Each structure stands twice: as structure tokens, then as C-alpha cells.
Amino acid sequence: MKTIDMQLMRYLNLFEKITHIRTKYCFFYNNTVVFLVEEKLVSRAIGENGRHVRRIAEILGRKIKIVPFPNGDKDILRFIATIVEPIRFNGLEVTENDVIISAGRQSKAALIGRNKTRLAEIQKIIKEYFNKELKIV
Question: For residue range 76-87, what is the model confidence (pLDDT) as tens digits?
């Protein structure tokens, strides 16, 4: 289970106060705070014309993404694609213990990031939520 530090706890409380939607999951990816909510509540969390997202981003001084919570292995492709957007990858293969992303040269470089920071972040996310290892080919 994921441990939540004080900063993430504050972000979760702010998110709930503004959107009136309770969530237990948020994390950082590429200097963006990503909140996970149930799929049916995503549009309510975003708010009319993105009002809630803009307000939270303004208060935190960071970019915000609201992503539907994945329902098992069948949602891995959509979950990863939503998080790493606008980076595109060619394919995704899920085995028993691994998630293998195949990407072109530039996409691969963008997924890995400078000093492998993005790679470490996405590996941590996949390990926490799916208990699988990430490989980029």
C-alpha cells in the first residue's frame, strides 16, 4: 500500500474541499499532480469548463490532471496513456509480472526523461497500482 506524506495529504484535502469528491490517491508525474477518481466522477471533479482544475492549479502553482482510477489489468493501457499524454507510444504488452511499452526513438527518450526521472516516476506508479515492473523497448 502506498504511503502518503504530508504534502500529498494537503493536496488530497484541497482537492476534496474544492471538488467535493473524496479520493485517496494522488501522485506526481513530470511536475504534475495527478489525482485518481472513480470514472463516473471525473467530469464532476474537473468542474464546469475546467473550473475546479484551474482553481486547484492556481492554488498549488502546479499543473493538475484528473484521471479515472484503473480497474485491474484491463485498464493499464488507458491509464498509462492518460498519464504520459501527450507522449505517444506504439504498443503496450502486459505479462504476468511486467508491463512492456514499445515506443519510437523520440517517444522513448521522452518517456525516460533526463537522468531517467520520468522513467523512475512511472515505474513507481505502475509498481504501486498494478504490482508489475515497467520495461520500455
Answer: 888 898 898 888
In the predicted structure, residue 107 carries a pLDDT above the cut 60: yes
pTM above 0.85, yes or no: yes
Residue 104, helix vs strand vs coil: coil
Please identify, in words, the CATH class of the domain defined by 6-68: alpha beta
Q: Of how many residues is the chain composed? A: 137
Q: Alpha helix locations (H) across the chain?
A: 6-19, 42-46, 51-60, 76-84, 105-112, 117-130
Tell me if 26 sits within 8 A of 8, measured CB to CB.
yes
| Domain assignments of the chain as residue spans, ordered by start | 6-68, 88-136
